[in-house]
Amino acid sequence: MIKIRLARHGSKKRPFYQIVLSDVRSSRNGKFIEKLGFFNPITSKKEEQTSYNLERIKYWLKIGAKMSKKVKTILKKK
């Protein structure tokens, strides 16, 4: 099964997340199929916190990929 989820990057106490498409069997920060965007929870409200490729997300959802709960909430806010 393929899932759209977050992969954590950044240093200690300064998280930065990439929105990636990966197999459910791979680890959180492990091998992924495609990078679809990013989410930065630390930035101020004026700066852009998320950026993603909506066309590719729609394509993968049509094929049968599932989204994690956190990715759903991030996409709903924007």
TrEMBL record:
Classification of source organism: Bacteria, Pseudomonadati, Pseudomonadota, Gammaproteobacteria, Enterobacterales
Family annotation (InterPro entries): Ribosomal_bS16, Ribosomal_bS16_dom_sf
GO cellular component, one term: cytoplasm
Alphabetical UniProt keywords: Ribonucleoprotein, Ribosomal protein
Gene this chain is encoded by: rpsP
UniProt GO MF annotations: structural constituent of ribosome
GO BP term, example: translation
Family as reported in the entry's similarity comment: Belongs to the bacterial ribosomal protein bS16 family.
Protein's name according to its UniProt entry: Small ribosomal subunit protein bS16
